Every structure is written in C-alpha cells, then in structure tokens.
C-alpha cells in the first residue's frame, strides 16, 4: 500500500497532498454514513408502492388486469354514448338515460375497486421497474451532490489560498 501511495505522490504531487490532507477517517465515515442513509431513504420511499392485499385489479402489475380491461372499455364506450344521448334527446327520456348512466358509473366504480389476487401480481416486473426508479433517483441526487460538493471544495480552496496569500503563486505554477 505504501508503494502505491508513493507512486501516486510521484505521479501527481498535488493529488497526493489533497488526499493526504482530506482523506481522514472521520470524513470518510461521514460520507459513507450519509450515502448509506440517503440510499436507505430512497429505497424505503419506493417500498410504499409495494403491492399488498389492497392492490386493485386496475393496477398495471396485476396479471388479471387485461381480463377486466375489456369490460371497462365497453362500459366507458356505453357511458359516452348515453352521455351524447342525454345532450340530444327528448326531455321525457332523460330520467331513464340518467338512471342507465348512474348504473354504468356504479359498475365502473365497482370494477375499479376489485382487488387483485395475490398470486396474480407480477412481482418480477414490479421489482424491475422500481429498481430502475431507485437507480434514476440516486443518479440524479448523486450528480447534483457531486456538482455542489465540487464547487464548494474549489471555492474553499481558493478562499484558503487567498487568505494565506499564495493564490498568485498557484496561478503562476505549471
């Protein structure tokens, strides 16, 4: 390990000084702890969407979803037809049409509340999509963190060099 550190020091002395000055156990422990904590929070946030015993049949990961989708689309078309008839019909027929519309809306509501059987939930697709979402969330967070932390480190180094009066020396260094 010492041989590797010596090689880094010979290859890039500035990097060696930066690593030696900043790579302390407390800083590494804080970075690891905050990283793990952030990852845990993102993971637990994604778990609130996990299908449970209240998972509706209309949800995308229910395997029986397509069987009821046909009925739901049929009822939606019927609802649109009756709605159009309500706008263009005789006032004597309107109560009958409203009753039919209410019945269709009740059936649509009932279909949306039917629960998916636990053995019909597609867990593989659910986990795949949610791991992708976790990955994208962490990627955006870490890129933003790296940009902010990098800018902070550059500004603090410039401020230290200005305070010490060595900024011009660094500017003129190769």
| Major sheet attributes | none
Which structural class do you get from the secondary structure elements? Answer: mainly alpha
Residue fraction in strands: under 5%
Multimerization status: single chain
The Cα radius of gyration reads 31 Å
Integer average pLDDT: 82
Q: Whole-Å distance between the termini?
A: 29 Å
Compute the number of helices: 7
Describe this structure in words.
Helix 1 crosses helix 2, helix 3 runs antiparallel to helix 6 and helix 4 runs antiparallel to helix 5. This protein has 7 helices and no strands. The mean pLDDT is 82. It is mainly alpha-helical and 174 residues long.
Summarize this structure as a short list of keywords or feature phrases:
174 residues, mainly alpha, 7 helices
In brief:
The chain is mostly helical. The protein has helices at 2-11, 13-22, 25-47, 65-87, 94-112, 123-164, 167-172.
């Amino acid at each position: 390990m010492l041989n590797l550190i010596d090689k880094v020091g010979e290859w890039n002395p500035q990097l060696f000084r930066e690593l030696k000055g900043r790579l302390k156990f407390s800083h590494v422990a804080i970075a690891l702890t905050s990283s793990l904590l952030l990852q845990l929070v993102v993971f637990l946030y994604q778990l609130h969407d996990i299908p449970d015993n209240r998972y509706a049949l209309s949800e995308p990961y229910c395997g029986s979803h397509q069987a009821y989708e046909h009925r739901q689309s049929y009822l939606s078309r019927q609802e649109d037809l009756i709605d159009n008839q309500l706008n263009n019909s005789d006032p004597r027929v309107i109560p009958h049409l409203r009753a039919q519309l209410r019945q269709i809306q009740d059936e649509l509501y009932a279909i949306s509340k039917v629960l998916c059987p636990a053995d019909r939930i597609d867990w593989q697709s659910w986990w795949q999509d949610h791991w992708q979402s976790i990955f994208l969330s962490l990627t955006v967070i870490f890129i933003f963190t790296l940009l902010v932390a990098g800018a902070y480190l550059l500004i603090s180094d410039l401020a230290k060099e200005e305070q010490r009066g060595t900024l011009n020396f660094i500017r003129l260094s190769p």
